Each structure stands twice: as structure tokens, then as C-alpha cells.
Amino acid sequence: MTEEIVKTALSKVMYPGFTKDIVTFGFVKDINIDGTAVSFTVDITSSAPEVAQQIKDEATAALKDAGATAINCNIQAPVMPKESSSQGKNIAPQVKNFLMVSSGKGGVGKSTSSVNIAIALAAQGLKVGLLDADIYGPNIPRMMGLNGIKPEVTGNKVMPLKAYGIEMMSMGALMDEGQALIWRGSMIMKAIEQFLRDILWSELDILVIDMPPGTGDAQLTLAQSVPVTAGITVTTPQSVSLDDSRRSLSMFKKLDIPVAGVIENMSGFIAPDTGVEYDIFGKGTSAPMAEEFDTKVIAEIPIEPSIRTGGDEGKPIVFANPTSESAKRFIAAAASIWATIEEINANGGVDNKGVQPTTPPGVSACSTPAPAKEAPKASSDESCGTGCGCH
Ligand SMILES: Nc1ncnc2c1ncn2[C@@H]1O[C@H](COP(=O)(O)OP(=O)(O)OP(=O)(O)O)[C@@H](O)[C@H]1O
Ligand SMILES: [Mg+2]
To answer: Which of 166, 223, 311, 360 could be cross-linked to 128 through a Cys-Cys bond (beta carbons 3.0 to 4.6 Å apart)?
Structure first.
């Protein structure tokens, strides 16, 4: 028996539900051969016992055919995530907790924060997904070093990409680079729903969702489709950014989403040569705003050139330089967010029934009176804000 023979035999075993085999997927690890005795591990993404059993049976049969006499197939499957106590509509039930990363303004560091928080949560031992729901400017693939990589599509289901211990999907990975899409309100809603429904996420402890800036259709659709466990707002310290961040925090309130904190980004500047910290946009200005909304600042992230280069080069700072000041602050913020989520779940979780569209099935929300709970106004003014999807 050689490793080559083992791999050739195992490449006949298709991953259940896919037309690709377990070797090509890269799931086969730790092959050990002793004469005609073979042991190996298959690291799979599903915790469904029938998937594990099917792979084990087919792998054993394929190796027997290839001449192996003793076969030890060790299936490594993800453990079922910790239960969440959240209720209401959830079109992605394999995900136990959802974190919405929002900002009032664009360019304040939402995507940078989403990527680094997601990697820091995974480093805590959690099973983490990262959804780039910023359909206008999907930057996450570049920041994760996954630019240009196309995901596996089977039927209408898509396998998430993987990097730095997390699963990721983005509109940027589904369309050609630089391609512009003009989004209408109903298209945004459909895109967000499809992202949640048709991506083959593993059983995740938490899905971190990088939203487009503002408070519009994407935010409302997300809140109606899944029980969002918590939200964070990313802001920069200037007053103009803080004004917009208030809108973002008040949106969380209207959507019944508990707030897990505020990240003040570009808060001071650490000179790379001397390590001295300078004030550029101001610093510490977000705390009074956080207090107004009964929450706290969970990180003040300084401007650090390596954050930008890390983003451009696809090497997020929490992974590339975990002992840097910014990485330490992202890691602490992630720990604080998870503690808040555990507390929210211990207290009964969240429920999104209060933000569901109020029209009966088949009736346009646009021809009915205003919904019982006033939905936040879409920034684009393209939608009535009910999630009706009809315009
Ligand atoms: N603390 C920081 N220090 C240095 N550069 C930073 C910092 N935070 C973000 N950047 C850089 O600023 C730019 C904007 O950040 P990012 O893309 O994360 O913002 P965003 O809020 O997601 O923007 P958009 O609204 O366009 O999606 C990026 O080039 C990023 O690398
Ligand atoms: Mg972004």
C-alpha cells in the first residue's frame, strides 16, 4: 500500500450531496500506512451523523477494493454548537447566533472590524462564519486573502470559502471583480435572503455579518430573516461620524436587536517607528454616545498602517500580528461580544417576531396601512420599509 494508492481509492468517495470527492475537497488528512493496514482522518464540515456514516462506509469499501485489509477511518465532524435560546423566524437554522456589524457612515472600518472580530472569535474556539452582506462594496474577499477565488456551486447551493479558521461568503466571490451591480430595494432583500438560505454554512456558533453602511433595506431584511442576537456599531471619533452612528444605534433599538457595544476606530494614531500615540480624529468621543444607548465602547482601535496593509494584502492583523496593540484590542472586543451574547442567551435570547412584515401572505404591504411596529425608514427611500419585496 502506498499513499498514492490510498488517495486514488479515496478519490472515488464523493462528499454526500456534491459531485466532488473527499480528496479534492481536501478533507482527507493524517494517512498512516503499515503494510496493508491503513488509517486516516476525514475532516468534514457537517455534524450530521448520516454524512459521516456514508463517507465511512464508502471509504472502507474503496480501500478494501484497493487491497487494504485493516481500515481505520476516523471522521472528524464539528461538534454541535451551543444552543441559542433565540426565537422567531430563522432561515439559517444551522447558525446559532448572528452578529450584525453596522455603521452610520461608510469607510469607518466596518469590514476591517468584522474580519478581525471574526478571526478573534474563532481563536476563542468558536465555529465562526463571516458574511459580507455589503453588496455595494464587497471588500471582505480581499481582506481575507480570498480575492478572485470562486466558490463551489452545486445546484443553487454554495460552499463557503475558508481562511484563517473561518467560513466566508461574499457577493464579491460570486461576481466578477470590478463588476458593478445596481441594486433596487427588492433585489437587496432577495440577495440577503439567498445568502442566508443557500450558503452551506456548517453548524456555526456565530455568523458575523458585515453590513452596507447606513440603515436601509439590507438591515431590515436581515432582522426579519434571522433572530439577530446582537449588533455592534463601528464609528470614528469625529462628531460627523458620531451623528450617523446614533442613527445606527437607534436602528438596533427599532429592530429589537440588543447592542453588544461600539468600536471606536481610527482612534488616535500609533507611529510605527516610535510607538508614540497621537490624536488625529480625536479619541474617546464615542463613550458618551454609547452611554446614551445603554452600551459601552468595547475597543478603541488606533490608526495603524499595518491594519491597512493587512487589509490590502489579505493578512488581517489579528492573525498576522496578534501581539500588536490593535490586535489585542480586537481580541478583547471579541471576548466582550461573546460574553454579551452568552448573557443574552442566558436571559432568553432574542425574538424577531416584532419586526416581521405585517401583511398576510400574497398581499402587498404597499397597499396596506402602516405596520404595527414602525419599521426604520430605508435610507434609499426605495422601499416602504415593510420588507414586502414588491418594490
Ligand atoms: N485602524 C485603522 N488603521 C489604519 N487603517 C485602517 C484602520 N481601520 C480601517 N483602515 C483602512 O481604512 C479603509 C476603510 O476601512 P474598511 O474598508 O474596513 O471600512 P468600511 O466601513 O467597511 O468601509 P465601507 O463603508 O466602504 O464598506 C481600509 O483601507 C482599511 O484597511
Ligand atoms: Mg466595508
So the answer is: 166
Q: What pTM was estimated for this model as a whole?
A: 0.76
Number of residues written out for the chain: 391
Neighbours of 70 (CB within 10 A): 11
* Structure confidence at residue 82 (pLDDT): 57
| pLDDT reported for residue 389 | 41
Contact 265 CB / ligand 1 (< 6 Å): yes
Cα–ligand 2 centroid distance for 107 (angstroms): 7
Among 230, 219, 120, 200, which residue's Cα sits nearest to residue 165?
Answer: 120
User: Could you identify the atom of ligand 1 that is nearest to the CA of residue 306?
Assistant: 4
20 burial (CB, 10 Å; 0-12 / 13-18 / 19+) is middle
CATH number for the domain formed by residue range(s) 98-367: 3.40.50.300
Task: Tell me the HSE value of 357 on the side-chain side, using a 13 A CA sphere.
Answer: 24
> Is CATH 3.40.50.300 the classification given to domain 3-76?
no
Residue 45 pLDDT > 80: no
As a whole number of angstroms, the distance between CA 173 and CA 37 comes to 42
Would you list the domain boundaries of the chain? 3-76, 98-367
